[in-house]
Amino acid sequence: MPEPHDVLPGPGTLLGAWRLERLIHLGAGASVYRARTVEGAVGALKLLHASPILHRLAGERFAREITVLQGLAHPAIPRVLDHGIEERGLPWFVTEWLAGWDLETHRLRLGGRLPIAELIELGARLLEALGHAHHAGFVHRDVKPQNLFLTESFELRVLDFGVCRALAAAASLTGDNAVIGTPGYMAPEQAARRSSRVDARADIWSVGATLFRLASGHPVHEGTPEEQRLKTYREPARSLATVAPELPADFVAVVDRALMLDPDARFQSANEMRAALLARSLDGARQQGTVPVPTVFAQTYEQRTTEEESELPTSREGPQPVVLRLVNTPDPGANRDRVLPVHGELVIGREASPHGWSIADARVSRLHARVSWDAASARHVITDLNSRNGVRVNGVRTTSAPLAHGDVVRIGESVLVVVEGSRIAAARATAERTACSPATVLIQGETGVGKEVIARHIHNLSGRPGPFVAVNCGALPPDLAASELFGHTRGAFSGATAARRGVFQAAERGTLLLDEIGELPLHLQPLLLRALQQRAVRPVGADEEHPVDVRVLAATNVRLEQAVAAGRFRADLHARLAQVTVELPPLRERREEVLELAVHFAARAGRRLLLAADAAEALVLWTWPYNVRELENLIVHWAAQTPNDAQLGMPDLRALHPRLAGFPAERAQAPVPSESTRPAAARDPLRDRELLRALLTECSGNVSEVARRLNTTRAQVYRWMARLGLSSPRSPGQPG
User: Fold this and answer.
1) How far is CA 542 from the centre of its chain?
2) pLDDT by residue (tens digit) across 15-72?
3) Rounded distance, CA 80 to CA 67, Å?
4) pTM score > 0.70 for this model?
5) What is the distance between the alpha carbons of residues 427 and 447, in angstroms, rounded to a whole number?
6) Those residues with Cβ within 8 angstroms of residue 678's Cβ, 6 or more apart along the chain or in another chain
7) How far is CA 87 from the centre of its chain?
8) Which of 312, 372, 629, 663 could form a disulfide with 448 if both were Cys (CB 3.0 to 4.6 A apart)?
9) How far apart are CA 720 and CA 703, in angstroms?
10) 322-420 under CATH 2.60.200.20, yes or no
């Protein structure tokens, strides 16, 4: 029989007064839904499927602790609206609905690390909220980037406050000694199950681990979740300086002290750590000149005057920060990412400091270009400041041009890419969060985008000791497909001289990837559905089913919804496979990664990749119809034909890929269409309200599809809708 957490409630399920609308996050221990009451109130409902409460007194204690939490009033702590225990004993609670993103997603969007001044600001806000809660007698016990939330107006919210305390209170009645918290972020006394020693100083350790992750991109301890838990209380934490030596020494000292193994050696209160962080780290950051990044965390940046601060918008249009990423430059010391301002401007040049972005590129002018926010078009605009060598956007020289996600900017010998809400970062984050979950994951994407790579990544993070096994469903022989999947007994069919295991049994205690699942023959789909539901397989010719312990992932380059509508794929199997969906964007939609991947493939071939600026621009601009596989083939071909330490330039590209090499020139020579000659889908929706309304209606309110047709981002479509006063229509029966 399936365990309670194996059967997740679907849309429409009623928990108390709350009807589930859609699953928005699935983790190893909990799932989060958008939910709505009959009266129309919207909240975030968290179902704790790994912590069933089956004892009446335990349930009463859980409810009492949540009720106490409802009286904990602080701006950074979301209000608890309701709570309960569903029929299988799974506790749930509802908090106010927030629009924004968690700090782990924020870190990934900014290239893996947060700027030092932003870390100081976030750390101070977090510690202030924890100090308030500690004074009221609450210890969070699960502080981590995923539980720290940035709203659209960049205000910090601390999620899941009091949940660990409530679960611990319930567990104390059942004799449950389970670890409550997250390996890698729980304090040593939590990891060692010494609950009597868990106090406010445990949260101090978790804050240190959170700052360590956000500042360096690395965990305090490497390894699987269980290895991290064991190392946490058995070994001293490594210094932040070992993985991020460029950070200010005072900031490192604050983090290192928070991570001391002995609670008595840490900061003894959140307020003490906050004072040390602000007094020492700000001074160290300013001395090293590492705080000129203009983000909305404005009070830590000295270049902003009081008058400028008063003019900052109270909320940011669009839910995602816009980043300009430097992907190729002759300056090895230049900052890689800059968050584009929604107020003021960013000047780029050879001598743009202290308030701009300085790039030591001989072909970049002293003050080369300016990026500013244009409220009329709701876009950032780049303007040439009469530079000697000009500004190119998407291969075309320009004096001024609006910027959107994926645009390629060339100044001098440096190439930059506009990144707004990286879809690949979001896909990786979803994959990592669901790695330890038993849920099946459907990985979708075009051929060559790396579906098997992300599947292996999920397996490696899952902690499952068995093998990773991949099978191409499109290559299964029709007559032997059932045998390949489920195995067969001796004599089951002509030629079956011995019994043979199928891929399900071969992947025992591991992970099975069903690649090209959309090509699975229709007659096998009911058998696969039963195997997934019962966690058992019946080999061909056998009378009984054999239980299997397998995590199943599926991958496809076709839209299974369309296959279901066409009758080529079972709807119930699609629903079972797509408990969690990971959508991998094509390489042309993640141009910021092209050169990183090229360097990786060159290194794997034993070569160091040196790129001429023209070649770098051409590689980033190419549309890559065959995605990552096409890029890998090009780099491997180049590495095999050229001597060591040779630069990859345009002559090499012309020989290796003539169409790619000529692509920038084609774009530069192409005439710019006038407004009257553009097709309807290419017109500016900001000037054509009826066009946007018609597209929204045609796409049944699917903003992602509208963005695809307009060749822009979801965030940009939302901005246009807000400016034009349009709402998102929904098809009948579709959740809001």
Assistant:
1) 44
2) 888 888 888 777 666 788 888 888 888 888 888 775 566 556 656 666 666 666 666 6
3) 9
4) no
5) 16
6) none
7) 33
8) 629
9) 11
10) yes
